[in-house]
């Protein structure tokens, strides 16, 4: 079979396969919160002979379709890891275009008016223009009732926990609580109340693309009882059928929540 014939066959068969996957998903038991590590943009660019910025643009272009898939299936919260604190150490010639791409895609998502944007990360580590774009997107979409989209930029799990503990200590210092009193009453929920995702359910499913099988610091606290799914596709190539397979795999698991 020629390449053209194979491509034509895929165009016909994949929609049928996707429809079959959707029919087999349970009405109950799908994740409420999905976290995604959007990995593989740079490797995708190398594979197609493009520059790194082209890979990041291709990855950004796949975000809106992904949110559409989540919305169709009733998923309420999505966390997208776009840039880690470690990524901030990349060379300026790579980092600056990536930050501009992030600003653009966040602005486009906000302008769409369908998603509630919530920046999660150490915004103080970001350039002023990027931090401002994230804050403006959050302000513009505050009243939107659609999918809650956590945009993780300048995010690191250890930094988040550190920031949560710092905020907790500052709060109790203002209340006049002594360290001895705080140590005697401190529990898990006290820290959870100061995380970037406070008030949201923890992720039920965490997806990482590109074949890497590690967390890398993503939602370290929140993912204690999450299910994980690792996909070989680079993020720009991540298709609806890949997402449906992840959901099918999730639905077949028996969640134990650490028991």
Task: Write structural notes for this entry.
This protein has a 6-stranded parallel β-sheet, with helices on both faces. It has helices at residues 3-24, 41-47, 52-61, 63-72, 92-112, 128-140, 157-175, 179-185, 188-192, 240-252; strands at residues 33-37, 77-84, 116-120, 148-155, 205-208, 227-230. The chain contains 10 helices and 6 strands; from the N terminus they run H-E-H-H-H-E-H-E-H-E-H-H-H-E-E-H. The chain has a domain at 32-156 and 202-251: Decaprenyl diphosphate synthase-like (Undecaprenyl pyrophosphate synthetase), CATH 3.40.1180.
The CATH topology of the domain at 32-156 and 202-251: Undecaprenyl pyrophosphate synthetase
Strand order of the largest sheet: 3-4-2-1-5-6
- In percent, how helical is the residue content? 40-55%
Q: Mind telling me the CATH class of the domain at 32-156 and 202-251?
A: Alpha Beta
**Could you tell me the number of beta strands?**
6
Structural class estimated from helices and strands: alpha/beta
3D shape:
globular
Spans of 5+ residues with little confidence (pLDDT < 50)? none
CATH architecture of the domain at 32-156 and 202-251: 3-Layer(aba) Sandwich
Gap between N and C termini, in Å? 51 Å
The overall pLDDT average reads 92
- Largest beta sheet, briefly? 6 strands, parallel
Helix/strand order: HEHHHEHEHEHHHEEH
> What's the multimeric state?
single chain
| Number of contiguous helices | 10
Q: What is the radius of gyration computed over CA atoms, rounded to a whole number of angstroms? A: 20 Å
State which percent range the strand residues make up. Answer: 5-15%
Query: What's the name of the CATH homologous superfamily of the domain at 32-156 and 202-251?
Result: Decaprenyl diphosphate synthase-like
